[in-house]
Each structure stands twice: as structure tokens, then as C-alpha cells.
Design goal:
It holds the Pfam family DsbC_N. By secondary structure, this protein is α+β, with helices and mostly antiparallel strands. The chain is built from 9 helices and 14 strands. The chain has 2 domains: 94 residues, Disulphide bond isomerase, DsbC/G, N-terminal (Nuclear Transport Factor 2, Chain: A); 140 residues, Glutaredoxin (3-Layer(aba) Sandwich). Helix content is 30%, strand content 21%.
């Protein structure tokens, strides 16, 4: 189960606005989840009744059982108190100095704005967010407006929105360089600084845009040209707005799922392996004007 008790958010850089030259906002470290917060809580209280007025013994036992399952991998956590709330059937659960909420059966827990199905080890909030952000890879992404790179046979596919001034994008590019049998569609998305647009233009105007972009992202080598050719960059910016791409890097996969932020090689390989059997798009290689 992906939950705020253990999960770390991918790292990325956020745009203040989806227009070229918008001021950047560095991707912050993953938000403090229940795990980290509770580790800073005070020492455990002496054993005793933790249920407040109106909480039956059966409800107390059910919630404790659910919380113990949720916190099983985190030694030192302890439920300090269970109280009723103004909402019938919803209980406040204090863990150290932090508060989460649980149903009377202890199956569902609301922690850090994440609704968790404890019994089935599912993060229902994440699942719903993924569903809402899913796209149709072949219909929603105009692959002819992306820079295409092929590693090996290129049987596995992803699309990525990148800004040339994005440090997390450069980190992600290093990860992509180590993945074989992969086709990468890069949508140049200059949203972090005024120079992002200039650099993106120069990459597109290079003799080999794929090599130019890769060299710029991995070695910091800016293409030596005026950057005055016709490019699809403004179309890509409009596409990013439409798809609600608010930070870079943002990755899309053939099953329609998106991943905001840089991820590890292990995470990327796991996602790509799960794409087996998905229809693989065969978008045309980009043309430069």
C-alpha cells in the first residue's frame, strides 16, 4: 500500500504559471508523513485506557487493531488517545502529537489527507488521483511535436515534459540514459525561467535535436545556433496547460498514467515492466522547421 506512512514523493520543479519565463518554485522535499512526525513525538505514556467518552470498548479494539496493522513496520509508534468527533462513526486517533481519523471498524484511516484502506493495504486517495490524471497516450499526446530518442529496439515507451533549467529533469535524464530498449518522447516545456525558452529553441534548431537536447541536459552544452527556426514549443506549452502539467519533469506512460517528478531507476524499470502488453504508439519522428 502506498501511504503517507512510508511513501516519498517524486522530486520535481514547479512552475508558478504555465507560460515561458514563469518564476520557478523548487520542488520541496517530500512532505512530512505520519511516520516522520510520530518519530519526533514524546515518549510513550504508561499503559492505560485510551478511549475517551462515547468510545465503546469494541470500537477501541477495532481501531487499535487497524492502527497496529498500519504502523507494524514502525517501531515506537503508539496510539495515545481515541475520541469521538462531530461526524457520526468517525473517530479522532492521536498518535504522539499527531492526529489521524479512523472509522469505527478500524479499516479506514485518514492521515495527511490520504484515505487508506488498512485491510487491503491500499491508498484510495492516490488511486483516485491517478485515475483522474490518466490520459489517452496516443490521442492526447501529439508525438510529432516531441523530440524522439530511441535506445536499442525502443520497444518500451514513455513521454516526458522537461525544462532545460530543471535540475530534477537533468537527474531524470541520467536515469533514462541507463535504460535500454526504450523510446523517449521529450516535450520541451520551458516554464521555469526566461532562458528556458531560448535553450529549448536552440535545441530544436540544431541539426540533430535529440542529441542537442540530451547534451544540454546531461553535460550543460548549449547548442550553437540562433534558435530562430520554427518549433512546436508554444503548442507544447498549450498542451501542458491542457493536461495540467504544473512541474517538471512529468512522465507519461502508454497505460495513461502520469508520474510527476524524478524517480529512481528501480521505480522506472518497475513501471516500464508493468507496461508489457500495452499498445505501443509509433509516433513519427519530429521535424524541425
Amino acid at each position: 500500500m502506498v501511504s503517507p506512512l512510508a511513501a516519498a514523493e517524486p522530486a520535481g520543479e514547479l512552475a508558478a504559471a504555465t507560460t515561458p519565463g514563469a518564476a520557478p518554485s523548487q520542488g520541496a522535499a517530500p512532505s512530512e508523513g505520519l511516520t516522520d512526525a510520530v518519530k519526533k513525538a514524546s515518549a510513550e505514556k504508561p499503559a492505560g485506557k485510551i478511549a475517551g467518552p462515547g468510545v465503546s470498548a469494541a470500537v477501541e479494539a477495532a481501531i487499535l487493531k487497524g492502527m497496529q496493522q498500519l504502523m507494524a513496520a514502525n517501531a515506537g509508534m503508539k496510539v495515545e488517545e481515541i475520541r469521538t468527533t462531530p461526524i457520526d462513526g468517525l473517530y479522532e486517533v492521536r498518535v504522539g502529537s499527531n492526529v489521524v481519523y479512523a472509522d469505527a471498524g478500524g479499516r479506514y484511516v485518514l492521515a495527511d489527507a490520504q484515505l487508506l484502506d488498512v485491510e487491503n493495504r491500499r491508498n484510495l486517495t492516490n488511486e483516485r488521483q491517478m485515475e483522474l490524471s490518466r490520459i489517452d497516450f496516443t490521442k492526447d499526446l501529439p508525438l510529432d511535436k516531441a523530440i524522439k530518442q530511441v535506445h536499442g529496439k525502443g520497444e518500451r515507451v514513455l513521454a516526458i515534459f522537461e525544462d532545460p533549467n530543471c535540475s530534477y529533469c537533468r537527474r531524470m535524464r541520467q536515469t533514462l540514459a541507463g535504460i535500454d530498449n526504450l523510446t523517449i518522447y521529450t516535450f520541451t516545456y520551458p516554464i521555469l525561467a526566461p532562458s528556458s525558452l531560448t535553450k529549448s529553441q536552440k535545441a530544436w534548431c540544431a541539426k540533430d535535436p535529440a542529441t542537442a537536447w540530451n547534451d544540454m541536459m546531461t553535460a550543460g552544452t548549449e547548442p550553437d545556433n540562433a534558435g530562430d527556426c520554427k518549433t512546436p514549443i508554444q503548442d507544447v506549452v498549450a498542451l501542458g496547460r491542457k493536461l495540467n502539467v504544473t512541474g517538471t519533469p512529468t512522465l507519461f506512460f502508454p497505460d495513461g498514467n502520469r508520474v510527476p517528478g524524478a524517480i529512481s531507476p528501480e521505480q522506472l524499470k518497475q513501471i516500464l515492466d508493468a507496461q508489457n502488453g500495452q499498445a505501443q504508439p509509433g509516433g513519427a519522428a519530429p521535424k524541425k522547421g
